[in-house]
Amino acid sequence: MQIKRYEVRSIQEAVTKIRSDLGEEAVILSTKRLRGGKVPLLEVTAARDESEKRSSSREPHDTQVIDNNVISGSADLDKIKNDIDEMKSLLRDFRREVPIRRELSQLKEYLNNLMSVLGTWEKNLFPGALSKIYYHLVANGVSREGAYNLVNTIDKIDSFESTYKLLEDRITKSIPVSDEKKKKGVIAFVGPTGVGKTTTLAKVAAHYAMNEKLGVGLISADTYRIAAAEQLKTYAKIMGLPIKVVSEKEEFKQALNRFSDKDLVLVDTPGKSRNDEGYMEKLSDLLNVSASLETNLLLSLTSSRENMLDAASRFGMVNYDNIIFTKVDEATGYGSMYDVIGQVGKPVSYLTNGQNVPNDIEKANSGRIAKLIMHQS
């Protein structure tokens, strides 16, 4: 194998030199930025397998060096996806052939190369105002794929302001929210630890008991967390609402029968780790008592997009109906909501933005969520 190292100002310059020295069959092994010089430089290492050189006269090979043309459109997304698939294949091969430390080291080099390609691709992705909007969405937490798909729907570019408003309107139309009709029946609140289930339940209870004048009963099935039931009991006492604490399915059924005269029964569930499969199975069985039971999954906006999607996937076992986004007031970016809503495919019922009961909660509104995603408070 022939290996050469280059110090260049850009990937394009490296590609030109690599093609000249090593030919079309060369591959880039790694790229990294060099520090300390007056002019920013990249160190690029490339190689060509001599066996490929000998066989090139017999069989054509697809070049693996970076194309110097401007990357654009869906064909380039396919190229990046193919690169990722190739990396996955390489990783599977590495697991069979080399120790784990070497695997991770080589995978890191391939990732560095891919990110260099991605950076070059993004710089030329959209013209003018669209490019500004694309980076605005990414900076606010929308995934690169989500931002690309959104901006790519714009087929006519006017001013920045009008294009921005057009995209906001399209996001608004894509956000499903739960029905605004008066709630009745049984509503359960589930979610990872620390997302604010008990406080959110208390806010909803206060709204329906005080504002809508419904008969409301409370059930706490959270006997794992210290003082969780006591917290809900305190809220119930302040609002003058009946409450039952249960730990088993039979007790839950009895509590529901006890509150059969109520318009609305709100159920607080345990806040154990979503990684506890035994807990998830027990929770699913507990809530499988009535076809009319509505379940809300709470996700904190202070968590990462990946964690929210993971929680949404794991809690899928309980077949939740709606999403509630909590801690809006503590989040620094709201773009991740777009990806979560799009992938989960469930309507949003509420947003919560503080600890105050009964305030600091609002019914979900598509336009309001779109403004948050576009970073307008």
Main attributes of the structure:
377 residues, 14 helices, alpha/beta
What does this structure look like?
By secondary structure, the chain is an alpha/beta fold. The protein folds into four domains: 1-68, no CATH class; 70-125; 126-174; 185-373, P-loop containing nucleotide triphosphate hydrolases (Rossmann fold, 3-Layer(aba) Sandwich). 47% of the residues lie in helices and 16% in strands. The termini are far apart. The model is unreliable at 55-73 (pLDDT under 50).
Q: What is this structure's SSE topology?
A:
Blueprint: E1 2-8, H1 11-22, E2 27-34, E3 41-48, H2 50-55, H3 73-97, H4 100-123, H5 128-139, H6 144-151, H7 160-174, E4 185-190, H8 197-211, E5 216-220, H9 228-239, E6 243-245, H10 249-258, E7 264-268, H11 277-287, E8 294-300, H12 305-314, E9 322-326, H13 336-344, E10 348-352, E11 361-363, H14 366-373
Parallel strand pairs: 4-7, 4-8, 5-6, 5-7, 8-9, 9-10
Antiparallel strand pairs: 1-3, 2-3, 10-11
Helix pairs in contact: 3-4, 5-6, 7-14, 8-9, 12-13
CATH topology of the largest domain: Rossmann fold
User: What is the highest CATH level, the class of the largest domain?
Assistant: Alpha Beta
Characterize the overall form.
elongated
Number of helices: 14
Q: Mean of the pLDDT scores?
A: 80
CATH superfamily of the largest domain: P-loop containing nucleotide triphosphate hydrolases
Structural class: alpha/beta
Helix content: 40-55%
Q: Enumerate the spans where pLDDT stays under 50 for 5 or more consecutive residues.
A: 55-73
What's the multimeric state? single chain
Distance between the amino and carboxyl termini: 57 Å
